[in-house]
Amino acid sequence: MIYSEKVMEHFQNPRNVGVIKDADGVGQVGNPVCGDVMSFSIKVKDNRIKDVKFQTFGCGAAIAVSSIVSEMAMGKTLEEAMKITNESVAEELGGLPKNKLHCSNLGADALHAAIKDYQEKQKGAHKEKDEEVPAEKPAESEACRCPYCEGPLGELKDFCSACNLELEDCPECGKAKKKGAKDCPHCGATKPRI
Amino acid sequence: MKRVYLDHIASTPLHSEVFEAIVPHLKENFGNPQSLHSVGQEALKAVEEAREKVAQLIHARPSEVYFTSSGSESNNFALKGLAHAQKSRGTHIVLSAVEHQSVLHSAKSLEKLGFRTSLVPVDKFGMVNPEDVKKAITKETVLVSVMLANSEVGTVQPVEEIAGVCRKRDVLFHTDAVAAVGNIPVNVTELGVDALSLAGNQFYGPKGSAALFVKKGTRILPFIEGGIQEGGRRAGTEDVAAIVGMGKAAEIAMRDMAKRAEKERPLRDRLIQEFPRRVDHVFLTGHPEKRLPYHASFCIEFIEGEAMLLNLDMQGISASSGSACTSKALKASHVLLAMGIDHALAQGSLVFSLIEGTTTKDIDYLLEVFPPVIERLRKMSPLYTQYLEEKEK
Question: Residue A99 and residue B379: Cβ atoms within 8 Å?
């Protein structure tokens, strides 16, 4: 089996599956192009997560990650829940295969998106800018993977951990290319426009 | 636990007669076929006998069969060896969009050396239109490669017609027949191909046994340089046991192929008919009739392939998927995308490929345990929830 016992246990018996009908906050991240879609809904009382449910379209790792994130978040204060990171999720699961580590990013992101949603709703009409808004998930297939080795790109869009390559956004098309490379693998631009 | 192996396309099991045939070549008959002494000559005799049987299986001459280590190697050998040998005539290659990665990636590496590649599209069944191949061929074209049967969707291509198109334009034609040889009749003369790849572990031979057919008189550059093995075109001490095993497997295939297909076809048809009746939003992928006799493939909407595979494995069923999550590159199957299937649906790809020993009970067992797995995963899927909500509106 490619997964740890803990991953398989959560995959077989996922906790907190479902949708909270009158949720206080809802968050959905990912897209089917990259593989997974995760949605979290939360109930909040006195700044604590009273209830949390998830739904996941994705692989075994994605389902196990969602399950453990929901377990880790349950009963925590919003601040504590915001501190759940992909590393802590993967660690809690007894490790994930390298090419599945991006699943742990999605789990934490989805939970954080639900919390953000709740906080936005609390703020109500006076919309304020928040510095800590989680990064928007890229919607295009190319954006999910390293354009050179096709390995998945996690949070760090400027570095591919699979082939140890530093990446930067192409000034022409905005997609990831090798840092300093003249040619963009996507749009073929040879020179940045001045 | 009941074990049901439905992953022919990954590898067939080793036939017991093949195993028996191999063992002496791992033990007492260990010689190097290139040695002058009798121990070596014994091994050489075994290799040449195997070559004859493999040649018979595809109706070729023994001298036209080059042993390699895998289907991927055969495809690399064919693409690179033929293209480079033709370079003075032109540098354009035509492939179908649904070729195996070993063909596509070989072409990619040829592009770095100055070749140009055109991909011919496929229809919704994954079928190539020979007319499209005709249109893609230019004055610069030196090689066309279209697979005989696709392992992911089972579709059998009109290779004979495509070969005819190529012959008229004096362009070499290679076909990747790894999923086909040993399972359906393949005759290189009738097909009119210049080169053809095959692999032993697709017809109950050992892994590490494969071959490339190259038509007599066709120029091909060596793939591994060194000694004089395989006519100097693929140097390296022969894997005698693997070669002997494939020879035996070829012999058995000639004897049993029709019988196997007769047994597998009705079971496959039952799966194809019955499965969509038991579960909604399930689609057959590939051609409904022109497909490998052992092959049934589907896309199951709203859920993902790897999660299904893990659940099926827990029930003792082994199958395959073309979903992004099951691939190391986390990329959805290029075959399904080329057929116009969208990313979300392609994620739900599942392939059941039958083997010789598959029984009606096995298929019934699959039909019994699979629907609850789908139901469970759909309950977990936000895409399914969204679909139900929209349906209610």
Answer: no
Q: Say yes or no for a CB contact (<8 Å) between A99 and B330.
A: yes
Closest-CA distance of chain A to residue B307, Å: 5
For the domain spanning A5-123, the CATH number is 3.90.1010.10
Put simply, the answer to whether B347 touches A32 (Cβ < 8 Å) is yes
On chain A, the residues whose CB falls within 8 A of the CB of B322 are none
Q: Tokens 């869009």 belong to which residue?
A: A157
Interface of B to A at Cβ within 8 Å reads 302-307, 310, 314, 323-326, 328-332, 343-344, 347, 379-385
Amino acid code (one letter) for A133: V
Which CATH number is associated with domain B16-253?
3.40.640.10
DSSP string, B178-190: TTTBTTB---HHH
Closest CA to A156 of A112, A101, A93, A90: A101
d(CA B89, CA A95): 54
Is the pTM higher than 0.95? no
Q: What is the pLDDT of residues B133-175, one digit of tens each?
A: 999 999 999 999 999 999 999 999 999 999 999 999 999 999 9
Domain boundaries for CATH 3.40.640.10 within chain B = 16-253
Q: How far apart are CA A39 and CA B73, in angstroms?
A: 43
Domain B4-10+256-392: which CATH class? alpha beta
CB contact under 8 A, B329 and A150: yes
- This complex has an ipTM of 0.87
Length of chain A: 194
